[in-house]
Amino acid sequence: MKKAVALKYPEGAAAPFVTVTAKGELAQKVLDAAEENDITIVKNDELTDFLSVQEIGTCVPETVWPVLAKIFAFVMQQS
Predict the structure, then answer these.
(1) HEC profile of the chain
(2) Tens digit of pLDDT for each residue in 53-79?
(3) What DSSP designation does 59 have?
(4) pLDDT class of 8 with cuts at 50, 70, 90
(5) What whole-number distance in Å separates Cα of residue 35 and Cα of residue 29?
(6) For residues 72 and 20, which has the higher predicted lDDT (pLDDT)?
(7) Which SS3 state, helix, strand or coil, does residue 39 take?
(8) Which helix (H) or strand (E) holds 5?
Protein backbone atom coordinates (compact mmCIF):
# COMPACT_ATOMS: atom_id res chain seq x y z
CA MET A 1 0.00 0.00 0.00
CA LYS A 2 1.29 3.44 -0.93
CA LYS A 3 2.13 5.74 1.99
CA ALA A 4 3.06 9.40 2.23
CA VAL A 5 4.32 11.55 5.08
CA ALA A 6 4.87 15.30 5.08
CA LEU A 7 7.16 17.09 7.50
CA LYS A 8 7.68 20.71 8.45
CA TYR A 9 10.75 22.20 10.08
CA PRO A 10 10.11 25.88 10.76
CA GLU A 11 13.06 28.09 11.56
CA GLY A 12 13.67 28.10 15.29
CA ALA A 13 11.79 24.85 15.92
CA ALA A 14 13.47 22.26 18.13
CA ALA A 15 12.81 19.50 15.60
CA PRO A 16 10.83 18.76 12.45
CA PHE A 17 7.28 17.59 12.98
CA VAL A 18 4.77 15.46 11.12
CA THR A 19 2.11 17.46 9.27
CA VAL A 20 0.49 14.73 7.13
CA THR A 21 0.30 10.96 7.10
CA ALA A 22 -1.67 9.20 4.38
CA LYS A 23 -2.19 5.74 2.91
CA GLY A 24 -3.62 4.39 -0.34
CA GLU A 25 -5.50 6.80 -2.60
CA LEU A 26 -5.06 9.65 -0.13
CA ALA A 27 -1.28 9.12 -0.22
CA GLN A 28 -1.36 9.45 -4.01
CA LYS A 29 -3.35 12.69 -3.69
CA VAL A 30 -0.74 14.05 -1.25
CA LEU A 31 2.05 13.15 -3.69
CA ASP A 32 0.14 14.70 -6.62
CA ALA A 33 -0.40 17.91 -4.64
CA ALA A 34 3.29 18.04 -3.75
CA GLU A 35 4.24 17.68 -7.41
CA GLU A 36 1.75 20.35 -8.49
CA ASN A 37 3.26 22.74 -5.94
CA ASP A 38 6.91 21.97 -6.78
CA ILE A 39 7.52 20.39 -3.38
CA THR A 40 10.45 17.99 -3.41
CA ILE A 41 9.46 14.37 -2.89
CA VAL A 42 12.01 12.01 -1.34
CA LYS A 43 11.30 8.27 -1.45
CA ASN A 44 12.47 6.36 1.61
CA ASP A 45 10.14 3.45 2.39
CA GLU A 46 11.69 2.56 5.74
CA LEU A 47 11.49 6.13 7.04
CA THR A 48 7.97 6.55 5.66
CA ASP A 49 6.84 3.38 7.44
CA PHE A 50 8.34 4.64 10.70
CA LEU A 51 6.93 8.18 10.44
CA SER A 52 3.50 7.15 9.16
CA VAL A 53 2.53 5.87 12.63
CA GLN A 54 3.53 9.10 14.38
CA GLU A 55 0.79 11.47 15.53
CA ILE A 56 0.27 14.53 13.35
CA GLY A 57 1.85 17.54 15.04
CA THR A 58 4.41 15.52 16.99
CA CYS A 59 8.12 16.12 16.68
CA VAL A 60 10.09 13.52 14.78
CA PRO A 61 11.92 11.18 17.21
CA GLU A 62 15.63 11.83 17.69
CA THR A 63 16.47 8.36 16.42
CA VAL A 64 15.77 9.44 12.82
CA TRP A 65 17.39 12.89 12.97
CA PRO A 66 20.60 11.72 11.22
CA VAL A 67 18.59 10.38 8.27
CA LEU A 68 16.42 13.50 8.15
CA ALA A 69 19.49 15.74 8.25
CA LYS A 70 20.73 14.11 5.04
CA ILE A 71 17.30 14.44 3.43
CA PHE A 72 16.90 18.10 4.41
CA ALA A 73 20.42 18.83 3.10
CA PHE A 74 19.49 17.17 -0.21
CA VAL A 75 16.24 19.14 -0.43
CA MET A 76 18.04 22.42 0.32
CA GLN A 77 20.53 21.71 -2.49
CA GLN A 78 17.64 21.16 -4.91
CA SER A 79 16.16 24.59 -4.12
Answers:
(1) CCEEEEEECCCCCCCCEEEEEEECHHHHHHHHHHHHCCCCCCCCHHHHHHHCCCCCCCECCHHHHHHHHHHHHHHHHHC
(2) 999 999 999 999 999 999 989 888 887
(3) B
(4) very high
(5) 10
(6) 20
(7) coil
(8) strand 3-8
- Distant-in-sequence, close-in-space partners of 5: CB < 8 Å, separation ≥ 6: 18, 20, 21, 22, 47, 48, 51, 52
Is residue 52 within 8 A of residue 21, CB to CB? The reply is yes
What type of residue is 77?
Answer: Q
**pTM of structure:** 0.86
What domains, with CATH codes, occur in the chain? Answer: 3-78 (3.40.1690.10)
